[in-house]
Amino acid sequence: MGLKRLALLFLTAAITGWVGYYVGVMREPVATHMPRGATASLDYLASAKSFSEVEHARAALDALAVRYVENAQALITQEIMSRNASFGIPQSSPERPMLAAIKLLDEALPEFQGTAGELRLLQLLLYALKQERRYDRWLDVYLDALYRHPTHELVSSLAEEAIAISQAVGRQRELTTGLWYLAGIPVNFSAKSRIENSLIRVRANAQITGEANECHL
């Protein structure tokens, strides 16, 4: 019970600290200094105000994303600790914490589509889905991220894992099509070579198993 209480206190402090930081930044007044006698045009003031409002909205959205991530992490931690008999943590609800985390992230994601917070939530969702061995759903989420965020580090860093999962669920061709889409992007990005190396391995595996591959590097 002591370990559980300590873990929960730590997670609560982390959530409070992060949210407090972002709220503090969001509320911090902005000081402006102008030479005596200088005047600012209405267009400039309107533009500055609009920029400030956008920054405040972005900070609020980031703070909300952090709360979702921290809450989901707390649920995942609770699940992992409950699996270890030495902790002896009882279930407080009929729904398992890992499943509750997946549900929480699924419901939150539409609010953050197209923002940096979306990728934070996606990374945690992919982890939870893999823990639950929901491999088809994992691949669906990964492929969606691949086509909507093709150059993001998350996509390239999980490429090898995606290959293994696609083989396990019999969806190699679907994933290979997505990886070739990444390799064909006419812009060099940091992880493009990693994608190309993954494709070389996919093609080699296909040749070994006798599958025809119509794509070429």
Descriptive account of the structure:
The chain is built from 9 helices and no strands. It has 217 residues and is mainly α. It folds into 2 domains: 105 residues, no CATH class; 84 residues. The longest helix has 42 residues. It is flat.
List keywords for this structure.
mainly alpha, 9 helices, 2 domains
Any chance you could write out the topology, listing elements then pairs?
Blueprint: H1 2-27, H2 42-83, H3 97-108, H4 116-131, H5 135-148, H6 153-157, H7 159-169, H8 172-183, H9 192-208
* Helical run tally: 9
Rough shape?
flat
Measure the end-to-end span.
57 Å
Going by helix content, strand content and strand pairing, the class is: mainly alpha
Summarize the entry for a quick read:
It contains nine helices and no strands. With 217 residues, the protein is mainly α.
